[in-house]
Write a structure and sequence with these properties.
A five-stranded antiparallel beta sheet has the order 1-3-4-5-2. It starts with 5 loop residues before the first helix and ends with a helix. The chain has helices spanning about 5-10, 30-50, 135-150, 160-169, and strands at about 10-15, 50-65, 70-80, 85-95, 105-115. A hairpin with a 3-residue loop joins strand 3 and strand 4. It has four helices and five strands, in the order H-E-H-E-E-E-E-H-H. The protein is an alpha+beta fold. Helix content is about 30%, strand content about 30%. The chain is globular, with a radius of gyration of 17 Å.
């Protein structure tokens, strides 16, 4: 199985915020943004694995900036780390100023997807090899996030979480 780079899975979805997608403050509904992020992450995971993929978890979402009605919103997703059958997808959300065209980072999220076969059985995914400094930072942090998640779920003993322990030594 051929290793891949994050750029191989990079997915960019750009769309307008319409009136039916906004709350009473005329900002994009959080649930609408979650759906957009899930779609972009799904495409990124499928591009990496070339398999059917399912959302396993939404590990982190930060709604840092409201996205107003009429804004151009861009969701960028890429695999940040591949494990055995799962992939962590890092998502950046950008909003474009209507007048200046300047883009600013509005939100971010981290999703986990699992590649499966036609019966829903998990299958092995290709290794991921980061190329840039940011990709390497996200790649390394993904293992710590996974270990933390496993410890909190009771699926890993804290003493076995070597990457987490290294943060405190």
């Amino acid at each position: 199985m051929q290793a891949k780079n994050p750029k191989d899975s990079r997915t960019i979805l750009t769309d307008l915020v319409l009136p039916s997608e906004t709350n009473p403050l005329n900002n994009l509904f959080g649930g609408e943004l979650l759906a957009r992020m899930d779609r972009a992450a799904s495409i990124a995971a499928r591009r990496h694995s070339r398999r059917i993929v399912v959302t396993a978890s939404v590990n982190h979402v930060a709604f840092n900036k409201a996205i107003p009605l009429g804004s151009v919103v861009t969701v960028e997703a890429a695999v940040s780390r591949a494990f055995k059958t799962s992939m962590e997808i890092f998502i950046d959300v950008w909003v474009e100023d209507r007048e200046s065209g300047k883009r600013s980072r509005a939100n971010e999220a981290i999703y986990t997807f699992v590649a499966v076969d036609e019966t829903g059985t998990p299958v092995i995914v290709p290794e991921l090899i980061p190329e840039t400094k940011l990709e390497t930072e996200r790649f390394e942090a993904a293992l710590r996030r996974k270990q933390l998640s496993l410890v909190l779920a009771g699926k890993m003993k804290p003493s076995e979480a070597t990457e987490l322990k290294a943060l405190f030594e």
